Amino acid sequence: MSRPKLLVIEDDRSLSEVIRYNFGLSGFDVFQAFDGQDGLNQARLRLPEVVLLDVMVPVIDGIEVCRRLRAGEDTRNLLIVMVTAKGEEADQLVGFSVGADDYVVKPFSVKVLLERVKALVRRKSAGQRLEDDVITLHRVTLDRIKHRVMVDNQPIELTPSEFRLLETLLRQPGRAFDRSELIDAALGEDTLVLERTIDVHIRGLRKKLGEQADVIETVRGVGYRYKDM
Question: Contact, 83 vs 106, CB < 8 A?
């Protein structure tokens, strides 16, 4: 079995080396970039399973790197974990709004970071093979094998977190999910993020659903649900 590839885009060379060493021991092939432009180039060349991305890297900042990766045909489905000292609520919401799958605030435990990344990789590679592989409701079709979503027979591009979020809602139409449940579904259990983070993901998902945006309904005081029959 091939080793998963990890790209670390971090200008703090000592921290980057600590991450490289620990992830290497745990079975990852680790590549390093010390500025945003080199990180973008390497991501496009190597297509790693996971990108660890510092927001404050020089040349091109991490927010713009994330935005460009999500816009690229070959890189839009990479797992992106932002690693940064900017831990304010507004900073986290910006990170998730441009497509980050997780957000880790410095200082952090490398062991905890490793387990969070492993969990993201496991969920993506296992594919969570549940009941139906293709679900269609209200002109939205989700194909979990091909990892594709169609709206009115036209493909739309979702981030991995948005895809998991939509799948969770689609599988149980009419059921109201609270925000913590949706965070677990989209980002993984024990992920420590603000509950408002899920609102950012929902907003992005609705925008991409276009004319079918209203299939995701807000349940006041609870969270969200997918419109029932």
Answer: yes
Q: Provide the sign of the torsion angle of the four alpha carbons 218, 167, 65, 115, taken in this order.
A: positive
Q: Look at residue 80 in the predicted model and tell me its pLDDT.
A: 95
Angle separating helix axes 197-209 and 89-97, nearest 10 degrees: 30
How many residues belong to the chain?
A: 229
Domains and CATH numbers, the chain: 5-126 (3.40.50.2300), 134-226 (1.10.10.10)
Side-chain-facing half-sphere of 76: CA atoms under 13 Å: 12
d(CA 223, CA 177): 6
pLDDT of residue 194: 67
Q: Is the dihedral of CA 106, 109, 112, 118 positive or negative?
A: positive
Provide the token pair at 219.
């349940």
What's the whole-model pTM score? 0.63
CA dist., res. 127 & res. 167, Å (int): 12
Q: In sequence order, which ranges of the chain are alpha helices (DSSP H)?
A: 13-25, 36-46, 62-71, 89-97, 110-126, 160-171, 179-187, 197-209
Weakest mean pLDDT among 23-32, 36-45, 115-124:
115-124
Q: What are phi and psi of 66, to 5 degrees?
A: -60, -45
Could you read off the pLDDT of 217-229 as tens digits, one per residue? 999 988 999 998 6
Phi, psi of 62 (to 5 degrees): -60, -35
CB atoms within 10 A of CB 26: 16
